[in-house]
Amino acid sequence: MIQLTERASQHVKNFLENRGHGAGIRVGVRTAGCSGLAYVLEFVDEADSNDTRFESNGVSVFVDPKSMVYLNGLQMDYVKEGLNEGFKFTNPNQKGECGCGESFTV
């Protein structure tokens, strides 16, 4: 299961609205950084037949089968910290992350 907080879902809804189309967002992982994995977000216009779909606060979240093992139980928030803002990931599968916070390991 993947969950978005109310702030995160509102941010995604606003982007989809401004974009003018889209079925939701895809959350995945890719090999990157010094810890091994990094989160990847992209808009989805059409779901892939292999995707798992979750509904969270009115937003469809799609996850590919290879990423699902790393993301099951993920919670996404949208936070503003000083001059920075962006998604914050709380992943129960995560065992560690690099010093800069750009990548993680499971």
Please explain how this structure is put together.
The chain is α/β, with parallel strands linked by helices and 106 residues long. The chain is built from 2 helices and 9 strands; from the N terminus they run βαββββαββββ. The chain has helices at residues 6-19, 65-71, and strands spanning 3-4, 24-32, 36-44, 52-56, 59-63, 75-81, 84-90, 96-97, 104-105. It has a 4-stranded mixed beta sheet. The longest helix is centred in the N-terminal third of the chain and has 14 residues, at 6-19. It is globular, with a radius of gyration of 14 Å.
In short:
20% of the residues lie in helices and 45% in strands. With 106 residues, the chain is α/β, with parallel strands linked by helices.
| Rg calculated over all Cα atoms | 14 Å
What is the β-strand count?
9
Strand order, biggest sheet? Answer: 3-2-5-4
Mean pLDDT: 87
The termini sit apart by: 17 Å
Strand content: over 45%
Helix content range of the residues, please?
10-25%
Annotation field: number of helices: 2
Residue runs with pLDDT of under 50 for 5 or more positions = none
Helix-strand string:
EHEEEEHEEEE
Which sheet architecture does the biggest sheet show? Answer: 4 strands, mixed
Principal-axes shape call: globular
Helix/sheet category = alpha/beta
